[in-house]
Write a structure and sequence with these properties.
Elements lengths: L6 E5 L4 E6 L2 E6 H6 L4 H4 L17 E7 L3 E6 L7 E3 H9 L1 H14 L9 H6 L2
Antiparallel strand pairs: 1-2, 2-3, 4-5, 5-6
């Protein structure tokens, strides 16, 4: 399905991206968008190669760059900038936010880490 946003607003102070698709509006935290980046750095190059993102609780979007008429690229405060978010992918992230967020929290718990930045050292020590 082809979804095109009618409005995109970044609320920097609350670290939330507001995106509207006609009568559908989603409030997507920057942390959520960052941990579900469509980049190869996060998703890997195939099934089972995903990289769990830890310590992203306070990440923010510092810039939004349009990619043609079909996507945007977010520049994050942690310097991540390689994911291209298509309109359909952003719609999916909005529509499945509750389910995807719970999955992320479960994966963090399974790996003995959390969203907080200070847990990075513990996680890296387990690699």
């Amino acid at each position: 399905m082809n979804h095109t946003p009618t409005e995109i607003k970044l609320h920097s102070k609350s670290r939330v991206l507001e995106i509207s698709f006609g009568d559908q509006r989603f409030m997507l935290p920057c942390e959520y968008l960052r941990v579900y980046s469509p980049s190869a750095e996060v998703k890997g190059h195939g099934p089972g190669q995903e990289v769990l993102q830890v310590g992203k609780e306070n990440v923010n979007i510092v810039s939004i760059e349009p990619i043609g008429n079909y996507a945007v690229k977010f520049i994050y405060s942690d310097a991540h900038n390689s994911g291209i978010y298509s309109w359909d992918y952003l719609y999916e992230l909005g529509e499945k936010r509750t389910e995807k967020w719970q999955d992320y929290l479960n994966r963090l718990a399974d790996n003995g880490t959390s969203r907080e930045a200070q847990d990075n050292d513990q996680y890296l020590g387990n690699l």
